[in-house]
Amino acid sequence: MSYYPKMRGEQCYLSPINLDDAPMYTAWLNDLEVTRNLTLSGMMVSEQGERGFLEQLSKEHNYAIVTRDGDKLIGNCGLLNTDQKNRSCEVGIFIGDKAYWGRGFGTEALVLLCGYAFDYLNMRNIMLKVFGFNARAASCYKKVGFRIIGHRRNALQVEGKEYDEIYMDLLDEEFRNLYTSSSE
Predict the structure, then answer these.
(1) HEC profile for the chain?
(2) What is the pLDDT, as a whole number, of residue 181?
(3) Model pTM?
């Protein structure tokens, strides 16, 4: 596949979505271990449907997460519900290739995406939602600098148990305090 690094990190880079990756995304989005942490676990995803969805995503600020070593597609991240007037948006991310879970790729990809949103899209507030049972993701978001701003109690029922939906956000100045370049 062809990838075009837009934002580069040490382990990975973010590239525009390649529609030819639809089979890989389809495999990931039909894996319950991957989708139980997303809102897609109750859906069936066909390759044709995923190709159409990727085509829509590719027109907005959504990116493939690709390893620098080997140019391997491992996941996806993007900005949602972008409000230019109020300079706010939401962020979504997932690592579909389970071999890359817990290795810092999601954290790095999220730092790259948030930096882009603040520096180039002029955002001042980025929000996300995480399921109460997804401790690995919540830990990643806290490492990036996101703070809990609220809970929607018992909003989710997964495998017969109820969980909160946790809301987190990150402000431009908080991000800059954590990630200011030494060259500035």
Answers:
(1) CCCCCCEECCCEEEEECCHHHHHHHHHHHCCHHHHCCCCCCCCCCCHHHHHHHHHHHCCCCEEEEEECCCCCEEEEEEEEEEECCCCEEEEEEEECCHHHCCCCHHHHHHHHHHHHHHHCCCCCEEEEEEECCCHHHHHHHHHHCCEEEEEEEEEEEECCEEEEEEEEEEEHHHHHHHHCCCCC
(2) 58
(3) 0.93
